[in-house]
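FYI - complex with G3I, inputs then prediction.
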Amino acid sequence: MCAVVLTVTGVLVAVLPEPEQEGHLLPGLARARGIDLGVAVAVDPLAHDRRYRGIVEDHYTSVTAENTMKWEHVQPERGEFDWSGPDAVVDFAAENGLNVRGHTMLWHNQQPDWLAGGDWDAESLSAVVHEHVTTVMERYRGRVSAWDVINEPLEDGGPDMRRNLWYEVLGPDYIAQTLYSAHAADPDAELYINEFGIETAGPKADALYALVSDLVERGVPLHGIGFQSHFVHGNVSEDLADQMRRYTDLGLEVAVTELDVRIPEPVTDEDLREQRGEYRDVLAACLEVEGCVNVTVWGVTDAHSWIPEWFPGTDAALPFDTAYRPKPALSGMVDALSRRGGRRPAPAGDPGRRTRPAR
Ligand code: G3I
């Protein structure tokens, strides 16, 4: 991993490889530690941009479709399914030996007009949800290992349940109903609730924990909790591992599903060095928790990130820059996976390879 060279003064020094070379170690390191290291991908650059594709192939072990598996893209008109985008992602993953996280079934955003503006009662909406979930999950059965079945069920600031279409028409049990449909469609898929703002202790984190505890108590087929982890530089959760452990103690698995660390502009070299430590610490938190199975970064490069559009004045959230060059954050992830330094070193006796909790 590092070379030793003899300098002109006769002193032996260790030289760390360039981030570019180091990054190629990531898939092997992640697999050796028993987790997936994933990335969210967009269909167009995956098809047309060789460098974009190369970054994914060389650095990650799983992919999540950033948009193309969402309802507005998959079923833009009622009963008309468009598989072109999802197929492209799943086929790319298969060709490259990558796992796939499915994203997402029920979400309040990116719904087609016919769905968002429909005149629904409980019976008709239940039927449409069941049909959508069943059709999509049966198509990718065996090829998508985990699904974000429920996305962001709590209000942005928490702790109340989000008053989305599903809640308004079906009531709070829409979550259990949909999980049962998903489980019937693919009994081997890991079914997730994916949420943001739960990475740090607080009312929203507690509200999700209460909701999940109830589902687990009732035996609803729920297998994992996704911690989206859209962080701001300087404010990355310090108790992520503790929050994750609450769920693994319930017998669930957990994952960091949408990691990015946005930096307020102007972005300095010092910010990027600090961001390196932040990426390292998030990886280390996952590695610390038996049952944390995946860390996924939310986009391939800063040129493809959702951040500048949604949070103007912040940028540089991902491990590759807009020119596709690796940033210090990439070697921060290598650090964590190879146990080099960090706020949270691997606990003594960590067996290296980790196992999923019993289902
Ligand atoms: O589909 C239109 C296309 O027709 C149009 O030509 C193009 C022009 O800008 O826009 C396209 O829509 C974009 C869409 O992604 C693509 O499906 C929107 O502008 C863009 O705002 C939208 O943003 C996505 C966002 O979800 C929507 O809410 C981001 O790319 C995506 O990263 C983001 O992902 C979400 C996760 O799914 C859930 N967690 C939060 C995360 C960030 O919001």
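The pocket of G3I is lined by residues 66-67, 109-110, 151, 228, 258, 306, 309 (CB under 6 Å). Residues 19-337 form a domain with the TIM Barrel fold (CATH 3.20.20.80).
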